[in-house]
Amino acid sequence: MKKPSTILTVGSMAFDSIQTPAGKADKVLGGSVNYFSVAASFFAPVQILGVVGEDFPKSHLDWLSTRKIDVSGVKYAKGQTFHWVGSYEGNMNEAKTLSTALNVFEHFNPELSETHRHAEMIFLANIDPVLQTSVLDQAKGPKLVAMDSMNFWIAGKPDALKAALKRVDILSINETEAALLSGEKNLKRAIDVIRGMGPQVIVVKRGEYGAILFSPNGIFIAPAYPVDSVIDPTGAGDSFAGAFMGYLASHGASRDLAKSNPAEWDALLRSAVVAGCTMASFTVQDFSLHRLMRLEAKELSARQTELLKMIAVG
Amino acid sequence: MKKPSTILTVGSMAFDSIQTPAGKADKVLGGSVNYFSVAASFFAPVQILGVVGEDFPKSHLDWLSTRKIDVSGVKYAKGQTFHWVGSYEGNMNEAKTLSTALNVFEHFNPELSETHRHAEMIFLANIDPVLQTSVLDQAKGPKLVAMDSMNFWIAGKPDALKAALKRVDILSINETEAALLSGEKNLKRAIDVIRGMGPQVIVVKRGEYGAILFSPNGIFIAPAYPVDSVIDPTGAGDSFAGAFMGYLASHGASRDLAKSNPAEWDALLRSAVVAGCTMASFTVQDFSLHRLMRLEAKELSARQTELLKMIAVG
Description:
The structure is a homodimer. By secondary structure, the first copy, chain A, is of the alpha/beta class. Chain A has one domain: Ribokinase (UDP-N-acetylmuramoyl-L-alanine:D-glutamate ligase, 3-Layer(aba) Sandwich), CATH 3.40.1190. Helices cover 39% and strands 24% of the residues of chain A. The first copy, chain A, is built from 13 helices and 13 strands. The first copy, chain A, has helices at 32-40, 58-66, 114-117, 129-138, 151-156, 158-165, 175-182, 187-195, 236-249, 255-260, 262-283, 290-293, 297-311, and strands at 7-10, 14-20, 23-30, 46-52, 69-76, 82-87, 96-101, 121-124, 144-148, 170-174, 201-205, 211-215, 218-222. A nine-stranded mixed beta sheet of chain A has the order 5-4-1-8-9-10-11-12-13, with helices on both faces. Chain A has a four-stranded mixed beta sheet with strand order 3-2-6-7. In chain A, strand 11 and strand 12 (211-215) form a beta hairpin. The two termini of chain A are 29 Å apart. At the A-B interface, helix 8, strand 13, helix 11 and helix 13 of A face helix 8, strand 13, helix 11 and helix 13 of B.
């Protein structure tokens, strides 16, 4: 087995205050790179770029380090950590934002160390596309780049977003965002338009219904693993992305492979989607990173086997 | 290959007036047994029990007969055919009923001929559970019984519904109905409760997200085939059921097989769900039975192969 590639990720580190039909949690750990990195660390080494305020617990960074997550790119800045307040109702597929205090995140400017510059894979979590581009400018030829975005940037900074998209291999997005980005309501037509913007692989996140992978070799539709009780969907998408990228990193995936062996690339992507769906199903079973932080590799593997049985026809 | 079992189905024959985001259709052919029987006839012989009014075109029954569908159980009654007026908006997963004129359907009383009594499989489409029971009372030991129902009967005739359910092997239902019937919001818990009422196999219909099969051997989650454009979802559930039952009928499925070989039974059910999803995807591509009536076996088979590729991991 090959040595897994290192994944650099950049995005938010936050406190979340969340209300769901199952309960509420106040100022718990959140942020895309937290979810992404913990999920990815089951498969591959990860480097984080982020910014936190003086109120952010050093103990959390220490804990990430025990998982061999490189936190040297996390900067402490004067002020408070980004704080998001949101709620989920009925259909838990979409969060309602009640308030956003960007705090130190407002002036986030990711700077890559020499080590970061040589990361083999990059995951640009959902942040200003100008910063996403800045990370790519500083990096030295990553062999695979994936990106997440959201309505806010699609509507607010379309040109910057499109400039970043040109340099991206894999885009993760939901159905509403795909429609907004492409101007096409029908998903298949939307994907065709988005392919023209750069990314050849698009993973469409569908919340409780799983995900659809559009690869050059075809479509793969994966369901979410059905959990007994969804407590909090926050972080499902980012932990999906973490396991997805981690799986690819641990199996030698790259842009070159996509060209040289499309069938193997497609097979890797499909398994990576299953890994992502499995991971996300743990995330939603508790608030914050609670479930992920106590997740054991053997539980992950057992559930993945179970999910594979749930989608096997024969 | 064994001779396929004959399926007897009982339910509505109707005219539908439908408005969807894609357009409208006025007084077109509809009704559960129409959709069911045309779909099932790709796989197995079908017998219909239903009632129509004097305004119902004889030519349609002739057309069904050309597909070797036995229409001897369709009665012409004095009056007008059942007429349903409905619309679909935005999310096309649920119809809004604008008006229902039961007409001759109000006094429907299914009577089985000697031939009907010996049908090997029965599909009780969505009608009054008292009538569903009456059909089972008249039948002579079918080897497999499936049933569909809806909120109207679950809320309105719970006792009659539960009496019928006791004699049913397979129930097809959607998530809202499963919650209403069981009193459990969580789907997995709802299924456990429903199993206690009789049916050991439950197919949960999820509209554009496909279906989940709960069999004694496990869960199978199948996506809908993604079509370029959904014109009218009416009949998707009944044509799903038609192909599902037809597939089972053509592969020797029975209650006895479920007992003697649970693994084979489970494998048959999974393939039957894929057949159902494939068929339903054609139904929604046009109003009424239009797409099904011009569907060729080779198109069905090609799309099924395509759908199987979309859910294959390796």
